[in-house]
Amino acid sequence: MWVKGKASVFGTDFGKMQIDAVKRARADGLNQAGIVVSASSYRVQTETNKAMNDYYSQFTEATSRGIIIKERNIKISDPVRVSKASAKDERIFQIDAELEALVIIPEGSTDPGFSVHVQTKRTSYRETEPIQLEITASKDGFVTIFHVKNDTIQIPFPNGLSKNNKIQAKKRFNFPSDYELYLTVDGNEKSSNEEFIVVVTKEEFPVMEMGDVKIIGDELILPKLTLTELSRWLAEIPLNQRTMDHKILTVVK
User: Fold this and answer.
1) Which string of DSSP letters, residue by residue, matches the chain?
2) Structure confidence by residue, pLDDT tens digits, 52-75
3) In this structure, what CATH number is given to the domain that contains residue 234?
4) Is residue 124 part of a domain?
């Protein structure tokens, strides 16, 4: 069904506000389709102490009930100051977003005995500290890992260098296992919040063809995809054939 989603955000960083407004509009669209987004969705505090919902966390919680596979007529307003002009130390702006989303509600039901759990030794890392995901699934399957940062999705695993993504039931799967993975903070930012979405499927469902992987310096250049592409991939996998979990990490300089 096509649904309309609307949202408003407040703050001072116009770029981040525009991105967050669209994320919230997507979540609102899911709600309009009758899909209840989990109340435990991750929240970030901005410098102005305004709460911001991270859409991908909400997306992860909602994928068993509905998926947005197409968007259209996205409208983002110009920022409008909502604080009083006399408030010298408080300049708060509002940005509104609207969109139309095509939502698919998957048929069938999930396999209650099929689950995956991802954990790390801690939830905060410095740029100089390598991270490792510890993944455990209840049944044999194939694992795919998505890395979400600033509205960008990358696929760190499997890739052209590490292709074997089989996971055994109740046996811990470590990623990465043969090299070290570091997360970085962009530009002048002091920290960032990054999310790893782990999907395990009973059968092999490649997200995309893994071509030659480029290594520039010490950086592995990973394939990227859009939220729509991720949604379409999930929509093609029956509910009883997949399970997912996610982990959010804070990275500081």
Assistant:
1) -EEEEEEEEEES-HHHHHHHHHHHHHHHHHHHTT-PPPTT--EEE-TT--EEE-HHHHHHHHTTT-EEEEEEEEEEPPPEE-S-TT-TT---EEEEEEEEEEEE---S---TT--EEEE-S-SEEETTS-B-EEEEESS-EEEEEEEEETTEEEEEES-SS----EE-TTS-EEESSSS-B-----TT-SEEEEEEEEEEESS---SS---PPEEETTEEE--EE-HHHHHHHHHTS-GGGEEEEEEEEEEE-
2) 334 444 444 445 467 777 889 999
3) 2.60.40.2550
4) yes
